[in-house]
Specification:
two-stranded antiparallel ribbon; 5 helices; 13% strand
């Protein structure tokens, strides 16, 4: 690909433009889009674990899967595939299981026998980690390529 750079001022301007584009909202959208296959697999795995019946207050486990920014600065961005609402409180219990424990309630309580682990998030991660990185790489390269030729913001 021809760069069209003729001098050091052009090079500095192009590098500045690339840095600005990488710090733009386009990179945030690329990170969210890159995590989408992993999120879909997590939701699919959690949906299979649903117990029939009415929707609990706060929703089912699969309804609480979310991609959120953990940290965003000009130089560093961290996005997490995490859980929200009710899923935030129960995801780890489903994923890793529970030991027998006392379960208090309004009638005096009872002994819960525990629950076996039902992994749903880790298999989704293992299945999609390479694809997530390659998607992010493609999106980031597209942002850089467009900024090198002076193009518009990210297009997917």
């Amino acid at each position: 690909m021809a760069s069209g750079l003729t001098g050091d001022k052009d090079l500095r301007a192009a590098l500045r433009r690339m840095a600005d584009e990488m710090a733009s909202k386009g990179l945030d959208a690329a990170m969210v889009a890159s995590l989408e296959p992993m999120k879909e697999a997590t939701v699919a795995n959690a949906t299979r674990l649903r117990v029939p019946g009415p929707t609990p207050r706060g929703g089912h486990l699969d309804q609480g899967v979310a991609v959120v920014p953990k940290s965003r600065s000009r130089a560093k961005r961290i996005y997490w595939l995490t859980f929200a609402k009710r899923a935030r409180k129960i995801a780890h219990l489903v994923e890793y299981g529970t030991a027998p424990h006392w379960q208090p309630n309004y009638r005096g309580g009872w002994m819960h026998p525990g629950a076996r682990p039902k992994p749903f998030a880790r298999p989704a991660f293992e299945q999609n980690k390479e694809e997530t990185l390659s998607r992010l790489g493609r999106f980031a390269w597209q942002i850089l390529r467009l900024s090198m030729v002076g193009g518009a913001r990210t297009r997917r």
